[in-house]
Amino acid sequence: MNKKISNDWVKRSRKAVWHPYTQMKHHENFPMIALEKAKGCWLYDYDGHRYFDAISSWWVNLFGHSNTKINAALTKQLNTLEHAMLAGFTHRPVVELSERLARLTQNNLGHVFYGSDGASAVEIALKMSFHFWVNSGQKKKNEFVCLRNSYHGETLGALSVSDISLYKDVYGNLLNQVNVVDGPDSRHKNVEEKTVDYCLEKLEQILQLKNDRLAAVILEPLVQGAAGMVMYDAAYVNGARRLCDKYGVHLIADEIAVGFGRTGTMFACEQANVWPDFLVLSKGISGGYLPLSLVMTTEDIYQAFYSNDIAKGFLHSHTYTANPLACTAALTVLDIFESERILSANRILSLKIKKELQWVASDCRFADFRNLGMMFAFEVQGGNLGIHFPRKVFREAAKHELLLRPIGQTIYVVPPYTTSDEEIVHLSESLKKTLNKVLGSK
Ligand SMILES: Cc1ncc(COP(=O)(O)O)c(C=O)c1O
User: Fold this and answer.
1) Vertex 302, ends 299 and 308: CA angle to 5°?
2) Which of ligand 1's atoms lies nearest the C-alpha of 220?
């Protein structure tokens, strides 16, 4: 095996690379893993170990690593047009992708603006909403509403509309004020404060009070991912849409984590029978290959920017806007959705995984086993297990050929859509062995 090579990469990485979402000192006790390659649902390190990618590499990988179809499309595109600026130019992949995405919203959201990562697309949506109101003569509408424990990314604007103190508090002085309202949580059906009706009432109160100063409400439809895979009823999204319409405030749906089939439908908003004013997409869009994000919006909003006055235009850009390779990966993802009837195949896959994980629901060490589409989560009981619990689980899971990254005491799996029957069994058994070891057997 290549232990020496692996150690060398790890050592050099600790010296030269500042890793994301990491207290680097923790790596003194929790060594990172140097990856050599990936194929299908598996990641491989230099020591000859493999890991089932149960979290789809931070929720992005839909159709497996090194996917033959995406590889072929990218190779072709690489030899055709790798990149050119999008200001003053256009190209086939961006036009086709925009048209196809618009069709998926039945042309309700027919204008697509491109970003790179999720947070940058959230910034675009926030700026566009505010700028729309400025262009419409309502300059005072410069505040936003977000849900308790929401997560929309780490850049300053996105962090301003997020509500997770671990990521946010230290930067408080740099951030804009935001109006935080309680959101529903299906884990607490009997707690009034967590019900859809109560939370819609709270939302209405703030909209009634401040609608002349509010630009938009932003939410993660159906699942608040980083909050700990908090799932809630589509009726809330439907109600939020109705209230936003009533009080003249935009609705921004951040489907960065839940879009592209994760919750069972192509877009989570479809389950609420509504379209937002701004639909924000990223992560799965490129099948986990390349950074790509975008914001889709309506004809009305687009028209408010369409003018002889340059300052009324949306003068936002980034250098790699709609990179042709990233757009090609996204087009191939859409092809695979169609040709392999992924949404209906996922309905069966989701049931199989849920069935295999039934032991979780009957184990008293766990609570609130929940599932929506290709997302599964549960809580570990037993009081506070300490800040190192997620890292301990990560390390133990790796020994059982599994990639897991709990959020606090929430264990979740969001596997690739190409997970096979054999891999489902592996996922379930490795998960059980991991938790038995970390928590002690029942
Ligand atoms: C709902 C949601 N919004 C925004 C983001 C930020 O995306 P990125 O990490 O690509 O900036 C994430 C990332 O997990 C997310 O889950």
Assistant:
1) 130
2) 1
